[in-house]
Predict the 3D structure of the following.
Amino acid sequence: MGGRPVNKLCIRCHRVRPHTAHGLCNSCYSTVHYPYEPTGTGSGGRGVEKSAAALVGRLGDFHQYRRVGRTVVEASRLVGISSRTAWRYEARRKAEISTESTSTTNDQGETCD
Ligand SMILES: [Zn+2]
């Protein structure tokens, strides 16, 4: 039994609403405990941006090597990443491939550049 929200007077917004916890309704509870944090528009994040771009570049190179038939370990050496990182890339690559193949029914594959 239980699990059904009980209507109570919320201590924050003073309205009778389904009670969540600590005398707060659901929306007040989430506002208090999970306050919205603005993500900002990129002030002072240059170092992060740079490394993210480098990571995307390495990921692209890794994909390219894998596409031409290199093993994960070979590709990791060529790109200059650890094999542990390479396997993480590989997992992401496989996830992306499966997402593509399920979302589209295109059997043509990739077009040539
Ligand atoms: Zn409330």
Observations:
- Residues 46-67 form the longest helix (22 residues).
- The beta strands are 6-9, 16-21, 24-25.
- The pocket of zinc ion is lined by residues 10, 12-13, 17, 24-25, 27-28 (CB under 6 Å).
